[in-house]
Amino acid sequence: MPSAVTQSNPTESPAQQMDIVSDADVVRVRQAVRTLALKAALSIVDQTKIVTAASELARNTLIHGGGGSAQLELVHERERAGVRATFIDSGPGIADIERAMAGGNSTAGGLGLGLSGSRRLVDSFDLKTAAGGTRVTVIKWKR
Amino acid sequence: MSDRVPIIKIGELLLVSIQVDLSDETTVALQEDLSNRIVDTGAHGVIIDISALEIVDSFVGRMLATIASMSRVLDAETVVVGMRPAVAITLAELGLTLGGVRTALNAEKAFDMLRQSARFTPSGDDDAAVAVTGGFDAVGRDAE
């Protein structure tokens, strides 16, 4: 059993690593996030929000990042549980973050809501992007 | 192999009940299948039941909007039914407005809605005559 990286909480589950290289992987990531959201006992609305955000971000990883991976885990902070999902690709990065985050700016024929929309759906959103790749980490906490 | 969503013809209506976790590929296939079926059958109404969908993300949302406008061009009205409350809340927060997409709480209400529009007139129904004068165009345009 790999130990949790930073947190000392004994109930911390090991991060689940999933490849995102096909359309079907996006569906699998979505389902895995739902399973974690259930474990964290998120409300139906919060489950729906984190799964939807994960769907958007996994698709970004696949389409814009040229594929990559997701790291999913149950996290705890004091008394509350949450779901953390990290999406990593080694694609070209996001050239204009401000535009990408503003929404309504699609570069893939979509609605351009992937990044801006998913940020609104989660409690914590961390984006790191450079020419060598993009890493987005989101967290949804149980209320 | 990707899943295929079945499209069922009932009179002048096409009924689509999405029971799978939609991949993007399946979503695009449904859009194409549905436009072909509308043309092949001359259907004037499409009911899409999404009550089994646990999420509607921007890709599926875009598909619904595209089907709605595509079907309108092909002389059919689309009604999306059964959206879960959590999905509706999430869609609104995501920023998807689904402009131009007609919705109803369930398939039965959608059926009534389509029946009232002039283009869909099931036989043996007195309401149909009234509906014709009601005008389909007004219904079709109110989304704009």
Tell me about this structure.
- The complex is a heterodimer of chains A (143) and B (144).
- Chain A has 143 residues and is of the alpha+beta class.
- Chain A is built from four helices and five strands, in the order βααββααββ.
- Chain A has one domain: Histidine kinase-like ATPase, C-terminal domain (Heat Shock Protein 90, 2-Layer Sandwich).
- In chain A, strands 1-2-3-5-4 form a five-stranded antiparallel β-sheet, with helices on one face.
- The longest helix of chain A is centred in the middle third of the chain and has 20 residues, at 44-63.
- The N and C termini of chain A lie far apart (29 Å).
- The model of chain A is unreliable at 1-10 (pLDDT under 50).
- By secondary structure, chain B is of the alpha/beta class.
- Helix content of chain B is 47%, strand content 15%.
- Chain B has six helices and five strands; from the N terminus they run ββαβαβαβααα.
- In chain B, α1 (24-41) packs parallel to α2.
- The radius of gyration of chain B is 15 Å and the shape is globular.
- The relative contact order of chain B is 0.15.
- The A-B interface holds A 23-24, 26-27, 30-31, 34, 44-45, 47-49, 51-52, 55-56, 59, 103-104, 110-111, 113-114, 116-118, 120-121 and B 2, 21-25, 54-59, 61-62, 84-87, 89-90, 93-96.
What are the salient characteristics of this protein?
heterodimer; A: 143 residues; 5-stranded antiparallel beta sheet; 5 strands; globular; B: alpha/beta; Transcription Regulator spoIIAA; 5-stranded mixed beta sheet; 6 helices
What is the structure about, briefly put?
With 143 residues, chain A is of the alpha+beta class.
Shape of chain B: globular
What is CATH's topology name of chain A? Answer: Heat Shock Protein 90
Give the amount of beta strand of chain A, in percent: 25-35%
Number of discrete domains of chain B: 1
CATH architecture of chain B: 2-Layer Sandwich
Q: Can you tell me the number of structural domains of chain A?
A: 1
Report the top-level CATH class of chain B.
Answer: Alpha Beta
- Our measurement of the CA-to-CA distance between the termini of chain A, rounded to an integer number of angstroms, reads 29 Å
Counting H and I runs of at least 4 residues, what is the number of helices of chain B? 6
Q: Gyration radius of chain B, to the nearest Å?
A: 15 Å
Q: Largest beta sheet of chain B, briefly?
A: 5 strands, mixed
